[in-house]
Amino acid sequence: MDAEHVADDLDSVLLTEERILTRVGELGRTIDKDYAGREPVLVGVLGGAATFTVDLARSLESQVEIGWMAVRSYTTSKRSSGSVRLLKDLDLEIEGRHVIIAETVIDTGLTMSWLIGNLRQRGPASIAVCALLRKPNTPAFDVPAYVGFDVEPGLIVGYGLDYRGHYRNLRCAAVLAPHAVR
User: Among this protein's residues, is 34 annotated catalytic?
Assistant: First the structure.
């Protein structure tokens, strides 16, 4: 779906599909260089990071295995609940392996901190984070981080991110207009 299909619902287009894919390619080249000779495991965070995880994997020239986890750290009103609940656990063994957590947006850092702690208990050789978007005041993590774009606060939809199940298939990343938030 293109932005013009839902233009009335959007405050602004934050990143075009072309700009996103260019940056994902740059992230992939950096990861390839940093992980030369190793086969990292990408752990995608469902559902918002599915698109990003697949595009990131496709940008890599090295072999990569993809695993998925699903967690929830927000209530239905999109306010932080202060806790994280595991909805789907990783199906891969990661002990002794190099893990890169792929996430579309890091906001409060709650989910990412929980994921790092959870995966660390499984004995990987290393853990890193690769996020397409990072909002202000996100805490620093004690693992390497690859970040595509620093963005301002706002309800971002598209490129896998949704609002109440809608806009995930929007090709760009956009800020949802206040009147579209119900």
Answer: no
